[in-house]
Amino acid sequence: MDLQLRPAQIEDAPFLVPMVNEADGGMPFHIWSSLALPGADPWEVGLRRVQSDDTPVSWRMAWIAEIWNERVGAVIVHQLAETPEQLEATIMSPLWVPFVELELQASDSAYIKTLTVAEGFRGQGIGTRLLRFAERFRGPEGMSTIVADHDRRSLSFFGRNGFVEAARRPMVKDGWQTPGTEWILLRRP
């Protein structure tokens, strides 16, 4: 397998939008729907957020996995060095409040916001390669990510790779339909 990792370009935003949504269990689409003007497409709201330079899901923080020039996965990783005030300013919806509370507990870590592999390419080691790549951004407090309690695949993946549970927060759903009940902060020193 000829897997290549490269920095994302703004042209990758349409690929990243569904990846971001999947990584957070559909919550982004729910929020984008609430932000969209009447008659507007929520996916377009998501696209604008990924195309921006200063959101937590900006293409500028993303890396793309490719096999023979086909995009097959992505990781969005950045240092969590924001102050509580800076993080609180990113809250666009009550759904994000538990996320921000958990992120505050992971300060000075490399935070994996999104790590996902396209459906037909899972189980081939691509996620592991993306995680190994993300390690180069490791902070003084190691690495962190947040996953939903019902996402057994992600919990298993991160557990196999040395991440352990550090904290939990109840989900705020506000109309969002999900089988989960809690967000789990996972850390690796």
TrEMBL record:
CDD domains: NAT_SF. Coiled coil: none annotated. Residues 3-188 form the N-acetyltransferase domain. It comes from the Bacteria. Pfam families: Acetyltransf_7. PROSITE patterns: GNAT. Keywords: Transferase. InterPro entries: Acyl_CoA_acyltransferase, GNAT_dom. One of its GO terms (molecular function) is acyltransferase activity, transferring groups other than amino-acyl groups. This is GNAT family N-acetyltransferase.
